Amino acid sequence: MADIKYYDVILKPVVTEKSMNAMADKKYTFLVHTDATKSQIKEAVEKMFEGTKVKSVNTMNLDGKNKRRGMVVGKTAKTKKAIVALTEDSKDIEIFEGL
To answer: Residue 90 in 3-state DSSP?
Structure first.
């Protein structure tokens, strides 16, 4: 396994209608490094966003989609998605405030 630092774990937030509705329940969705574990994701969220306390982390591995361009067939890259649930007394994550 690669030595992943906490600032390399979270790649970007997922902004979809379903993930925006889950924010009311203090659940935030992120694209994360494919080798990151649940404990690494928890550590990264708590260090990157001050005042947050993670209750649970759910992850899912997504395979790449098949793509075709003429005769050439290929696949897009594999990704990993994490849904992070915060505790009731935790602060909200500010990057989602204006959305």
So the answer is: coil
Amino acid letter, residue 17: E
Helix (H) or strand (E) holding 44: helix 38-48
- pLDDT score of 93: 87
Could you tell me the pTM of the whole model?
A: 0.87
Positive or negative, the CA dihedral 96, 94, 81, 77 is positive
Which residues neighbour 23 within 8 Å (Cβ) at sequence distance 6 or greater? Answer: 96
Q: Which of 28, 25, 44 is nearest to 36 (CA)?
A: 44
Kindly give the parts of the chain with pLDDT less than 70: 1-2, 96-99
Rounded to 10 degrees, the C-alpha dihedral 47/27/97/12 comes to 60
